[in-house]
Specification:
The complex is a heterodimer of chains A (about 100) and B (about 160). Chain A is mainly α and about 100 residues long. Chain A contains three helices and no strands. In chain A, helix 1 runs antiparallel to helix 2 and helix 2 runs antiparallel to helix 3. Chain B has two domains: about 80 residues, Up-down Bundle (Four Helix Bundle (Hemerythrin (Met), subunit A)), CATH 1.20.120; about 40 residues. The chains are: A mainly alpha (about 100), B mainly alpha (about 160).
Chain lengths: ~100, ~160
């Protein structure tokens, strides 16, 4: 028995699902961010698996895409954690349910 | 044979640590579990013969992003370290389960065509060349994105 494309795709799907669960259900804004990072990781595993196992015109296109994905994830993490800090300073809480100024 | 064992060990570490992030009550422990998951993904990248991405994963995710999270946790008070769920936990669980089931079904049912058997070797030099030749415009745009994110983060947290 060998390890093929499907195995990695299932791992990527599991990571994405757990990340989705965290980002939708956590009360703490940092917990939501952890979920988003896990979703990034699941997508990256899927991209690298496709790049490894499937024939493509350019062998490295998938990996280059993941390089950009990691770059954007780093920028996103920096801005999102700055937002978390600003939110805490304004409202004295990290509970995302309390961010309700724009709620109808 | 070794690759099969490595895959099962690494995927167990990755998915198990991700589950621990969801289940652990303390936010600092959740970050530690998150680092475990990131390192497992780095191992999976090595298994997929993406050596440069594995190193980048360790440096950026397991190093920089998790340290940034620890900083923010340390800057908020001890009472804000609770990692509990909102009232939306069961709808969120249903939606996430449905998404995972859908993606798993697609991955297992779809016909992906012939699979390449041997992996690449030494991807770092090739990725560097690709970034500075064919992908040079996205590369420069990414540097502008990083600059804008850095300025935005500074502006957001600056004391008045």
């Amino acid at each position: 028995m060998s390890v093929g494309l499907e195995h990695f795709l299932v791992v990527g799907a599991a990571l994405f699902g757990i990340g989705l669960l965290l980002s939708l259900s956590k009360r703490n804004i940092i917990g939501v961010l952890m979920g988003i990072e896990l979703m990034f990781n699941g997508a990256n595993v899927t991209l690298v698996a496709f790049s490894r196992f499937l024939e493509a015109a350019e062998a490295l296109a998938g990996q280059v895409l993941v390089v950009f994905s990691i770059t954007v994830a780093a920028a996103e993490a920096a801005v999102a954690l700055a937002l978390a800090m600003a939110f805490y300073r304004r409202r004295q809480t990290v509970d995302v349910d309390r961010a309700d100024v724009l709620r109808w | 044979m070794g690759a099969v064992a490595a895959f099962w060990v690494l995927s167990t570490i990755t998915v198990g640590s991700a589950l621990a992030v969801a289940l652990v009550r303390d936010l600092v422990r959740a970050v530690v579990a998150l680092v475990g998951s990131f390192l497992g993904v780095a191992g999976l990248f090595v298994l997929l013969s993406a050596d440069f991405l594995a190193v980048a994963q360790v440096l950026i995710y397991a190093g920089a992003i998790s340290v940034l999270m620890v900083f923010v946790i340390a800057l908020t008070p001890r009472g804000a370290r609770d990692n509990s769920e909102t009232a939306m936990r069961w709808p969120a669980l249903a939606l996430a389960g449905a998404m995972t089931g859908l993606m798993t079904t697609v991955a297992l049912v779809a016909h992906w065509g012939p699979q390449v058997k041997e992996g690449l070797t030494e991807t770092a030099a090739a990725i560097g060349e690709a970034l500075l030749s064919r992908y040079v415009l996205p590369f420069e745009v990414a540097s502008v994105v990083l600059l804008a994110a850095m300025l935005g983060a500074i502006v957001l947290v600056r004391e008045e």
